[in-house]
Amino acid sequence: MFNFSYQNSTRILFGQDQIKQLAELITPEQKVLLLYGGGSIKTNSVYQQVTAALQAAEVIEFSGVEPNPNFETLMRATDIARREKIDIILAVGGGSVIDGAKFVAAAALFEGDAWDILAKGANVQQALPIGCVLTLPATGSESNGNSVVTRYETKQKLAFSSPWVYPQFAILDPTVTYSLPPKQVANGVVDAFVHVMEQYLTYPVNAPVQDRFAEGLLLTLIAEGPKALSDPQNYAVRANVMWAATMALNGLIGQGVPQDWATHMIGHEITALFGLDHAQTLAIVLPALMQQQRSQKREKLLQYATRVWQLQHQDEERLIDEAISHTRYFFERMGIPTRLADYGIQAEAIEQLVSKLVQHNMLALGEHQDITPEVSRRILQLAL
Amino acid sequence: MFNFSYQNSTRILFGQDQIKQLAELITPEQKVLLLYGGGSIKTNSVYQQVTAALQAAEVIEFSGVEPNPNFETLMRATDIARREKIDIILAVGGGSVIDGAKFVAAAALFEGDAWDILAKGANVQQALPIGCVLTLPATGSESNGNSVVTRYETKQKLAFSSPWVYPQFAILDPTVTYSLPPKQVANGVVDAFVHVMEQYLTYPVNAPVQDRFAEGLLLTLIAEGPKALSDPQNYAVRANVMWAATMALNGLIGQGVPQDWATHMIGHEITALFGLDHAQTLAIVLPALMQQQRSQKREKLLQYATRVWQLQHQDEERLIDEAISHTRYFFERMGIPTRLADYGIQAEAIEQLVSKLVQHNMLALGEHQDITPEVSRRILQLAL
């Protein structure tokens, strides 16, 4: 196990009817910027529950945060936060709204050009407090310090991290996910699954607590994910998916172990060029990457095959082949195709994707930094 | 899964050479009360590392905190904390020293008689900041808000909990555990194991993340515990035991699930009357309690048998019998006998123990509150 330093101070309020707790979490003296996306929270009663709980507080609303939150939109919210002397930002939505809230919270108190937080990695020294009501289990943003923002004008998708932007609290009510479209449920499950894999499927460093926890999350997502699609009003299933997705990227399972993240980096280019959903790109890239990196990841692939998929064979190559197949079939069972061709992307696109990776300096990805652009090309070829 | 609210803000600094970080964690302006127990930290270099890192700060030492910290001793430390206007308490030791630091931190800022914190459950509204350097993995106190204090004068062993006494930081350097006596290593492993069992071996509430995490900790302790005894200088083994013991009682695995804790309550009476180590009492009570409560715990016992001990039989009663035997043998393999008779305690003692439980109002223990004094008597008879 490597050395690590870990802190996660977000209070999780989990379960049915927890949105009511907002009345205690936010005091009447606090001026609230209520940030949300489209109008879905108005049709599933979440908006009504939130505003009812906040009736004693002064609330300014800002809607229209996009699925990939746009820098320009967030700067308008930042102007309001500054002008109105907002005390706390309440994000109601999925990862994009929460990521957006994090940027606004940091930008509102940033001296200088807030674009530098994203473009130059300028050090965030303070931020407005953030709370959130999660409506889509997927990204883990409700309980970490990470944020991804896109500048639509220049097509730049950039990230920042800061301990200052951990939400102070996150309300996770599984019932608010009942009305999600199946595609979003599937995307969320696959996103969480790949978050775990990026922190697990590397090489062994004798860290059994982290390994067992990661395997526990994978087993949970495999068992519960399909049920979330077939039985959408099942509280226990929704609760288990929601809690697994939070635990998948709240930092815990990645402490003291190597991490990969090449699947995410290659996937980002597919989204940027062809507009696929983030989770679709992960479902395409991960099985191909497992195949390409099968010797580097051999020990963990065998562990994954036996512990997660309960596979048993004498032939280790067959074990690895089947572990990869099972991963692919799981994504497809969730309704997410796993081949570039399934989305109409042909071999000609690969050079374009590789040159974008080079342009973005993605020259040495993965836990061994051995995924060069040439290796990324081979991964994409395996993903056709 | 039940609703829950969870927050754990302790920063964990894990690994070799992390004690040096004290120089950053404590600023030169802070006045430190350095709390420790006997002199063992002076013989294993921990004291030297701590004082070297703190050379810029003003440090007042208070040693002599007992293995079961004594209220009178802690009140002397509290007087010093008040008189010297201490800014932060640094606990260097195991669970007892950290528990003691929590009481001192709360008592120093408590208005009124600090005994009320323990005896009357008086609400702790503030506390001095606490940091700790853990030397004995066992209790989880380094990353939770719980404290147990004993008043030697009256033989009262009382607990309090408060969000104010979570350590701000906890330094976990596995190398400082190399020099622990084998008995303390064994006690720590068994203590952590039973902490997990108290939160796991109840009844199913469809909470697979919590179950898988608990099983992961049990599997880790079963695999690594004996190695910590046979190969005491093995860094990876020490690290895995240390991280498992922290995760066992930092609150995470118990969120949203029923909890038992009857083994602890019955065990406390054995310690109080006969002076056995806490972990010895747990090793005695747990197998007997599993046997006595086998029908109430049936589903979880079967899950434990198959997932933790990898047992396979058609006969479910045999599965449960073997799961209990394996648990007992694990404790004995750690060098901790599991029968009252092994400690010279005979059947006559049982009435005495049961009457103490009655005297302490332990009338309805366990996840179903069905462990009456009569059931406790049967458990103790099975433990002879």
Automatic annotation (TrEMBL), chains A, B:
<keyword id="KW-0560">Oxidoreductase</keyword>
<feature type="domain" description="Alcohol dehydrogenase iron-type/glycerol dehydrogenase GldA">
    <location>
        <begin position="10"/>
        <end position="174"/>
    </location>
</feature>
<dbReference type="InterPro" id="IPR001670">
    <property type="entry name" value="ADH_Fe/GldA"/>
</dbReference>
<dbReference type="InterPro" id="IPR044731">
    <property type="entry name" value="BDH-like"/>
</dbReference>
<dbReference type="Pfam" id="PF00465">
    <property type="entry name" value="Fe-ADH"/>
</dbReference>
<feature type="domain" description="Fe-containing alcohol dehydrogenase-like C-terminal">
    <location>
        <begin position="186"/>
        <end position="362"/>
    </location>
</feature>
<protein>
    <submittedName>
        <fullName>Iron-containing alcohol dehydrogenase</fullName>
    </submittedName>
</protein>
<dbReference type="InterPro" id="IPR056798">
    <property type="entry name" value="ADH_Fe_C"/>
</dbReference>
<dbReference type="InterPro" id="IPR018211">
    <property type="entry name" value="ADH_Fe_CS"/>
</dbReference>
<dbReference type="Pfam" id="PF25137">
    <property type="entry name" value="ADH_Fe_C"/>
</dbReference>
